[in-house]
Design brief:
heterodimer; A: 115 residues; seven-stranded mixed sheet; four-stranded antiparallel sheet; 0% helix; 55% strand; B: 114 residues; mainly beta; six-stranded mixed sheet
Amino acid sequence: DTAVSQTPKYLVTQMGNDKSIKCEQNLGHDTMYWYKQDSKKFLKIMFSYNNKELIINETVPNRFSPKSPDKAHLNLHINSLELGDSAVYFCASSQGVNVGTSSLFFGEGSRLTVL
Amino acid sequence: AQSVAQPEDQVNVAEGNPLTVKCTYSVSGNPYLFWYVQYPNRGLQFLLKYITGDNLVKGSYGFEAEFNKSQTSFHLKKPSALVSDSALYFCAVRDLSNDYKLSFGAGTTVTVRA
């Protein structure tokens, strides 16, 4: 069983469209994250939720809206897609919020291509 | 600001030779340091971490890393590399202003040739 699963794995869409990426973890963790990896492989945190509460909200355009219906799910909705949104989006989870004591478990990524 | 630097974009080694992936940090206070590995088309996997205690930390897949405070380094090492170690390696540091955040380095691509 996949511990952190994301769908879809690949997403190709036109500029201006709205799209969502879903993430689910079956590890019983209470903290989930969205990271963005750009074309140069640079990895940057976007959001984090702990028990459905937003705890990290980096400087991300408000076109990006995360939603956590329960602690096992964290979805990412993106409005009015732009070319610069093309990237691989990784979902991750951890047990607890303190990254010093909790390792991150990553999904396999969702590659978004905006044309 | 807390950060890590990985000075090498790429490291190439022959199978069976020692592998070193370099990481230096810039952190005020005591750093929490991590290594993650990303295999092709996969998510990142945790390898090891240094929080406190012994400067030599052992992790998964035969990797180890040495915390060196005087040189502000946390290099990842493996005595004998395998072709299957070919991957992208990330060093990371906990943000001291925010226990919830990890800041990742730019990554080092390791290629192990048979």
